[in-house]
Design brief:
Keywords: Cell membrane, Membrane, Transmembrane, Transmembrane helix. GO terms for molecular function: transmembrane transporter activity. The chain is of the alpha+beta class. It has 13 helices and 14 strands. The strands form two sheets. Strands 1, 3, 4, 5, 6, 7, 8, 9, 10, 11, 13 and 14 form a twelve-stranded mixed beta sheet that branches. Strands 2-12 form a two-stranded antiparallel ribbon. Helix 2 crosses helix 11. It is elongated.
């Protein structure tokens, strides 16, 4: 083994590879390009994944949103086509019947698609989304409180007419530098005191500016102020960690259907958007993209490996006489084979590492450019590869080097000393 890794062996390897620099560089470029493409494709897939996940704005992805629709089947003497509303009692019933749920947040809403100027402050007016919510909504749709505080359960219990407004609402209704906390805004003719301001990123790739045009008030005071009574417009429901809202939602629907005399077979009466299901499908897409990246990268790398194998065959043919002399002097087939394999592995690893370094430099440059840009509205952010990918690339290089040198090595040991010495 020590003989195998002696200075003489490596001097011969360097001399053999440097005897024709241009040919060696061209051969090495195939492997360099293959590894470069592999790393860049994997990093691009990671950048796309980061951008899409950033688009969710930190939302609790194990969630669904549920609303009422018309009953599509008659049931218990009630006709099809009838409308119904969720009630506040449904919330507690769902919590009791489906214990694996973390949050069941009833919500009501004003504004939105209606587009009316529903908020007034002094002479300024604006059309904003106004939500009646419970405090836990901030954990389901995270936001950064920039001043003051968010609504709490004391606000819920006392039905306080308080509001948390987005930064875009503040810009639209207040002068620059004007004190916001403690001031009043009028929502559909009802005064609410501002207790906080917030900002949050875009969600689902939407406009981040629109996400600041929202106002949050306590659910109870919303119901009282706007005569909603026990009605719940819709719900945001989040499952516990380790549970899947996709698997639990049928049990939630069963509770609602039973409480509102909806046929158990009526799949259209309850509308929902399963965020977890969408998120899982996106994750599946990224797994497929990684597979494609590895597949394409390895195919490109394979073309480089074939080039190395061909060049090593040429090298063996050029050194036929040298191999014959070494065999005549007592060199074993293993010593001949090992030198050819070492040359192949050495060339493969050196060119592959150069490809990794080049790809790392390109990624560093891309990230430097992205750092100076606002990526909140982009579906691409922080393209990187982890250390595991580097180890996988090194393993691919070692295996590739062995495969590239295997045929030339076997060709070399089949050379008979007498025939080799006769070669001119």
């Amino acid at each position: 083994m020590s003989k195998l890794f002696s200075r003489d062996i490596w001097s011969e390897i360097i001399e053999a590879l440097s005897s024709n620099w241009f040919r060696t560089l061209l051969t090495a470029f195939g492997v360099l390009w293959g590894i470069f493409i592999l790393v860049i494709l994997l990093a691009a897939g990671k950048g796309l994944e980061n951008g899409v996940k950033q688009g969710f704005g930190g939302m609790a992805t194990n969630s669904m949103f549920m609303w009422t629709q018309t009953a599509s089947k008659p049931y218990k003497g009630l006709p099809k086509g009838r409308r119904y509303n969720f009630k506040i009692g449904d919330v507690e019933a769902i919590k009791q019947s489906v214990p694996d749920l973390r949050f069941v947040s009833p919500r009501n809403q004003l504004g939105g698609f209606r587009g009316n100027n529903n908020v007034v402050r002094g002479l300024k007016t604006g059309a904003y989304n106004v939500y009646g919510d419970y405090p836990e909504i901030i954990q389901q749709q995270p936001m950064d409180i920039t001043s003051g505080r968010f609504i709490n359960y004391s606000d819920i219990q006392d039905k306080r007419k308080v509001a948390v407004i987005g930064e875009s609402v503040r810009k639209g209704l207040y002068e620059t530098g004007e004190e916001v906390i403690g001031s009043y805004i009028k929502i559909n003719g009802v005064n609410f005191m501002v207790i906080g301001t917030y900002t949050k990123k875009s969600q689902g790739g939407g406009d981040p500016e629109e996400n600041q045009k929202e106002i949050y008030v306590p659910f109870t005071s919303f119901s009282q102020a706007f005569n909603m009574g026990e009605i719940v417009g819709w719900m945001a429901i989040t499952a516990n960690d380790g549970a899947s809202i996709t698997e639990l939602k049928s049990r939630v629907f069963d509770v609602v259907k039973a409480r509102h005399s909806i046929s158990p077979d009526d799949d259209r009466a309850v509308g929902n958007f399963d965020l977890y299901q969408e998120y899982s499908q996106i994750n599946g897409l990224f797994v497929a993209l990684n597979f494609v990246a590895y597949f394409v990268g390895i195919l490109v790398l394979l073309s480089g490996i074939i080039g190395i194998s061909n060049i090593m065959l040429i090298v063996v043919k050029e050194r036929t006489k040298e191999i014959g002399i070494r065999r005549a002097l007592g060199a074993t087939p293993w010593e001949i084979r090992s030198q050819i394999l070492l040359e192949s592995i050495f060339l493969t690893i050196i060119s592959g590492m150069a490809g990794i370094v080049l790809a790392s430099g390109v990624l560093a440059l891309v990230n430097l450019v992205l750092d100076g840009m606002d990526t909140s509205t982009m579906m691409f952010a922080n393209p990187t590869v982890n250390i595991g990918v580097v180890f996988i690339a090194l393993l691919i290089l070692i295996v590739s080097g062995l495969l590239a040198g295997l045929i030339p090595a076997q060709t070399a040991i089949r050379v008979k000393p007498v025939d080799a010495l006769r070669t001119e």
